[in-house]
Each structure stands twice: as structure tokens, then as C-alpha cells.
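Hi, here's the filled form for the chain we discussed.

Project: internal
Contact: R.S.
Residues: 106
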Amino acid sequence: MSSVAPNFARIEVAPAYQKVADAIEREIVNGRIKPDDPIGTESELVQQFGVNRSTVREGIRVLEESGLIRRDSSRTPICVPAALQQACKPVEPGACAARSDVPRIV
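And the returned structure, exactly as it came back:
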């Protein structure tokens, strides 16, 4: 009796920085992080997520580019006001970062 191995689809694993960005985005979309609320310092986020600083920085960069957060004068990431978020209404976590029509906040 011969056995045929099943064909499995390759498992796609998101990079750690994308998981960081998705987790923060989910908190913003669900309203747990309000406009103008600080997200936390890089050091605090490193501790919370258990990743290195470059991973946190890249996750924050993704969210800055999507328009969900910006950095204040002390360089702490904060949630942008709702009026600025209207350009990005994600349906599911990660949807905002994947959009190319979202204006960049400088």
C-alpha cells in the first residue's frame, strides 16, 4: 500500500514588527487607546512586547506611515486625533498598514 503525502499550504508568519504594529493598531481601532493618548515609550513597549528596540521602532514606523500615530515633541508615539484617522478606517487588524492611499503625517 503506497501512501501519498498531503499537500499543505506554506504557513506565512508575520514579522515581529508587524505583530507589534497590529497589536497597537487593534487597541486604537477598538478605542482602548484614545486620540492624543501616548502609546508608551520605546523602552516601555520593548518590555511589554518582549522584543528588541529595533522591532518596536519598525512597528511604530509602520503605524506612523499609516497615519494612526505620530511622535510628540518628546519623541513619544501618540495616537493621532480622530479627524486625521478618518483616512484610514481598517476593517481588520493590519488592514491600515497595507493601504497605500493613506496620507503620510510628517
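Let me know if anything looks off before we file it.
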